[in-house]
């Protein structure tokens, strides 16, 4: 994995525990709730900290306002869906630094993000706020954002911990997940961010996991988070997520947001006085709140006083950040298809730009992450600036159900606004006229740039999507345009995947523009005209149809339970395991140049642990491969490394992303790329050992340009973890046969019995605790215990026990 600088620290200078010790119980209890919608409470010696949403910008609201109305403008960087697609941790870190700088100027101490929940289903209404369907990628991008923001002295809040993978019934639903899946898919990204970047705070999710609210789940919130991963910060609730506050404090939920008022203070005080809550738990959580607030105060001092908050975009305008937002957006755009090199466009090409989304961009998702931008670029103006012959036809309307809200138009370069049809007849007539104009414009164009995308109402916090279709009016218009001009580039605006299979084969070029933030319009033009050679990659598979997706039959659950029945087979793990066709695979993205791979070599050594606590034993992997730019223009390749263990003893995905790296190459240039895979990332969660385990064996290392464009493969021998799963009465004879201590003896005895293959199969499956009951075995409970003691290093095997086993096998042979 890309080597990163050590995470910046965000810690208090004054000793918070001392301050808290001197507070009254009431004062301590008050610290455990927010004082307002966005502030923590004060106490003698403890200042208040200011929290604000993000993380693709700073959403500073007045303390008691929960709504976007009146938010201070800030640079709207590309949301997580787009930042993930850059695969560029350095760039994401720079975005984090810029967000921190804006937070400081706006007096914000804690940016409420990043959100790194796994995209379990394309139907999750909040996927635009999340990074990927893969935990390693989500963790790397999340860690980069945390490192960038905290490196500048502003705290972050990693969210939503955990398994908040849908919006339907998000405040009540139980995500029912088996332990291996929970660890390997839904917690692993959080583990990565915590161990790599140590976020100052973490936000527990609304939902329950296996029946327990996450904020009341001590195993999740304390044992795993702190005990296993070493989290040092504060855990806060999502807004309004608290149910049983006392159970939450016991479990490790330090801070309730936005706050429970005086009632909560009394409740906590009474619980301590009645002995149902330990004072030590209150002290611990109050100390964490004090630590955060004091650290924030220290950081504020270092940064100087914040600028006076104003509501005028100009006051907060920041050219450099807008430029950075454009760079990040350009890197996020994924060129899905480009038959015949239709792109990039020559400036003299006669262009028809079709689609209201070209001049009224949809650039972020709706809900708590929404930023009031400092300004807003639209693609149409940027295209008009880049080409000599451009006609525009809106083609369709973005109404109430149709896309960017009225607020999104503020600051738009064009300032025009489509009519809102009042009556159905008028609407139909208008739609027909818009479509006819668009078809006429398309007819004579050299190239048609067709802007399609989802309306804002289709994906928003608080509700899930019902399908992954583009609006029917846009698809019908596209069909008509294709009838008069096949040279169509479809440019998409969507926060999560949409179905492309209805037209993907009929258009020569498709550009996935996600939601790109306030500078996305310019970035789209940069890619269309080749000023930026596209290098974005898919962080989620684009399926052929929603029915193919892993969670299709279980999402979003019934009776307030959702069963994660697909297990670890999420995203590309699912499609690969089932060998299913997809529209575009995870990791896919084209360039205006081409790359060749050669000389893959994999060595074992030490690259350090990426996941922190995990497996034992050395043997990290380093894959090196030479990448050559074989085309005519400079470009960037996102080199991806996937690992698997064919013949594993546990079900595994055919491949899992284990590392990635970006390499910028001039035409003809070659470079050796190093992909470091920590041994911890080879581990699976073993439910019997209740820990991470690295299986020994010949691992397959695949390197390439996407999960289905693998250019080189190597094998490498990895030694197993020297962990012995304890034998119990429930262990089988087969497991005893491969046990490192008693295995040879047991195997020898069973082999000596000369069992037929059939009987051997049945015998191997027998639990050891059945031996005393096996007719004629002669093995006593005491002898079985002795055998287990030997295996587990807690006793000695007597000759008599061994003889009894021999007797058993002899009898089995007679029964045959
Ligand atoms: C969201 C969080 C957000 C919080 C504060 C909640 O509804 O789930 O992501 O940080 O509100 O706005």
Note down, in words, how this protein is organized.
This protein has four domains: 16-303, Glycoside hydrolase, family 3, N-terminal domain (TIM Barrel), CATH 3.20.20.300; 333-535, Glycoside hydrolase family 3 C-terminal domain (Rossmann fold), CATH 3.40.50; 595-718, Immunoglobulin-like (Sandwich); 733-814, no CATH class. The protein contains 23 helices and 24 strands. The strands form six sheets. The chain has a six-stranded mixed beta sheet with strand order 9-14-13-12-10-11, with helices on both faces. A five-stranded parallel beta sheet has the order 1-2-3-5-8. Helix 22 (781-791) crosses helix 23. Residues 53, 112, 159, 238-239, 368 line the site of beta-D-glucopyranose (BGC).
Strand content: 15-25%
Radius of gyration: 29 Å
CATH architectural grouping of the largest domain: Alpha-Beta Barrel
What's the CATH H-level superfamily name of the largest domain?
Glycoside hydrolase, family 3, N-terminal domain
Write the layout of secondary structure elements.
Blueprint: H1 16-21, H2 25-31, E1 51-53, H3 80-86, H4 89-105, E2 110-112, H5 135-151, E3 155-161, E4 174-176, H6 179-186, H7 188-197, E5 201-204, E6 208-209, E7 212-213, H8 218-228, E8 234-236, H9 245-251, H10 261-274, H11 279-303, H12 313-316, H13 319-332, E9 334-338, E10 350-354, H14 379-386, E11 389-393, H15 424-443, E12 447-453, H16 472-484, E13 488-493, E14 509-512, H17 520-528, E15 561-563, H18 572-577, E16 595-605, E17 620-629, E18 635-644, E19 656-665, E20 670-677, E21 684-686, E22 691-693, E23 697-706, E24 709-718, H19 733-737, H20 743-752, H21 757-764, H22 781-791, H23 799-815
Parallel strand pairs: 1-2, 2-3, 3-5, 4-6, 4-15, 5-8, 10-11, 10-12, 12-13, 13-14
Antiparallel strand pairs: 6-7, 9-14, 16-17, 17-20, 18-19, 18-23, 21-22, 23-24
Helix pairs in contact: 2-10, 2-11, 3-13, 4-5, 4-13, 5-7, 13-17, 14-17, 15-16, 20-23, 22-23
The protein binds beta-D-glucopyranose.
């Amino acid at each position: 994995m890309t080597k990163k600088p050590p995470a910046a620290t965000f810690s208090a200078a004054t000793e918070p525990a001392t301050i808290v010790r001197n507070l009254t119980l009431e004062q301590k209890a008050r610290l455990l709730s927010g004082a307002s919608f966005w502030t923590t409470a004060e106490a003698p010696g403890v200042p208040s900290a200011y929290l604000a949403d993000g993380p693709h910008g700073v959403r500073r609201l007045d303390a008691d306002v929960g709504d976007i109305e009146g938010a201070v403008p800030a640079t709207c960087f590309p949301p997580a869906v787009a930042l993930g697609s850059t695969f560029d941790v350095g760039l994401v870190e720079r975005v984090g630094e810029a967000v921190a700088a804006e937070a400081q100027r706006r007096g914000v101490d804690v940016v409420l993000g990043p959100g790194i929940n796994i995209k379990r289903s394309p139907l999750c209404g909040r996927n635009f706020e999340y990074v990927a369907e893969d935990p390693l990628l989500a963790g790397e991008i999340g860690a980069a954002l945390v490192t960038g923001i905290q490196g500048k002295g502003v705290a972050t809040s990693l969210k939503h911990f955990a398994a908040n993978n849908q919006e339907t019934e998000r405040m009540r639903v139980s995500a029912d997940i088996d332990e291996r899946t929970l660890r390997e898919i839904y917690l692993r990204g959080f583990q990565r961010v915590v161990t790599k970047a140590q976020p100052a705070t973490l936000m527990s999710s609304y939902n329950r996991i296996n029946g327990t609210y996450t904020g009341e789940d001590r195993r999740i919130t304390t044992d795993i988070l702190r005990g296993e991963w070493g989290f040092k910060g504060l855990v806060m609730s999502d807004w309004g997520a608290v149910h049983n506050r006392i159970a939450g404090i016991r479990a490790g939920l330090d801070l309730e947001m936005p706050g429970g008022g005086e009632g909560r203070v009394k409740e906590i005080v009474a619980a301590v006085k009645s002995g149902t809550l330990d004072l030590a738990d209150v002290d611990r959580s109050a100390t964490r709140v004090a630590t955060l607030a004091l650290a924030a105060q220290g950081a504020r001092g270092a940064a100087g006083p914040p600028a006076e908050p104003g509501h005028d975009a100009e006051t907060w305008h920041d050219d450099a950040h807008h430029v950075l937002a454009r760079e990040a957006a350009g890197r996020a755009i994924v060129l899905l298809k480009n038959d015949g090199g239709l792109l990039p466009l020559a400036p003299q090409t006669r262009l028809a730009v079709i689609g209201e989304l070209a001049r009224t961009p949809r650039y972020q998702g709706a809900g708590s992450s929404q930023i009031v931008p400092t300004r807003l670029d639209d693609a149409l103006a940027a295209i008009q600036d880049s080409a000599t012959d451009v006609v525009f036809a809106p083609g369709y309307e973005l109404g109430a159900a149709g896309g960017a809200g009225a607020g999104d138009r503020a600051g738009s370069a064009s300032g025009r606004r489509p009519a809102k049809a009042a009556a159905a007849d008028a609407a139909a007539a208008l739609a027909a006229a818009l479509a006819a104009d668009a078809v006429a414009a398309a007819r004579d164009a050299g190239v048609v740039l067709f802007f399609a995308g989802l309306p804002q109402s289709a994906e928003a916090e608080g509700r899930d999507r019902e399908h992954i279709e583009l609006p029917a009016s846009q698809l019908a218009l596209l069909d008509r345009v294709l009838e008069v001009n096949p040279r169509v580039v479809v440019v998409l605006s969507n926060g999560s995947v949409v179905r492309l299979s209805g037209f993907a084969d009929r258009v020569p070029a498709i550009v996935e523009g996600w939601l790109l933030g306030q500078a996305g319009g310019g970035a789209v033009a940069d890619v269309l005209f080749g000023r930026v050679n596209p290098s974005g990659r898919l962080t989620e598979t684009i399926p052929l149809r929603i029915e193919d997706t892993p969670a299709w039959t279980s999402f979003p659950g019934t009776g307030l339970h959702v069963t994660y029945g697909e297990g670890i087979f999420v995203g590309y793990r699912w499609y690969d395991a089932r060998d299913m066709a997809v529209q575009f695979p995870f990791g896919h993205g084209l360039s205006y140049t081409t790359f060749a791979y050669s000389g893959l070599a994999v060595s074992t050594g030490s690259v350090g642990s990426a996941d922190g606590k995990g497996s034992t034993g050395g043997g990290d992997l380093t894959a090196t491969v030479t990448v050559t730019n074989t085309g005519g223009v400079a470009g960037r390749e996102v080199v991806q490394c996937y690992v698997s263990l064919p013949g594993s003893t546990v079900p595994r995905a055919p491949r899992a992303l284990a590392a990635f790296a970006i390499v910028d190459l001039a035409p003809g240039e070659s470079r050796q790329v190093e992909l470091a895979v920590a041994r911890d990332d080879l581990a699976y969660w073993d439910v019997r050992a209740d820990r991470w385990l690295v299986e020994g064996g010949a691992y397959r290392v695949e390197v390439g340009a996407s999960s289905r464009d693998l250019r080189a493969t190597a094998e490498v021998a990895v030694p197993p973890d020297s962990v012995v799963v304890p034998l119990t009465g429930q262990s089988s004879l087969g497991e005893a046969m491969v046990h490192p201590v008693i295995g040879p003896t047991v195997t020898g005895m069973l082999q000596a019995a000369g069992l037929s293959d059939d009987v051997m199969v049945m015998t191997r499956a027998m639990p050891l605790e059945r031996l005393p009951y096996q007719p004629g075995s002669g093995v006593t409970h005491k002898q079985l215990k002795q055998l287990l003691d030997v295996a587990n290093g807690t006793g000695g095997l007597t000759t008599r026990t061994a003889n009894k086993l021999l007797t058993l096998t002899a009898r089995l042979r007679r029964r045959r």
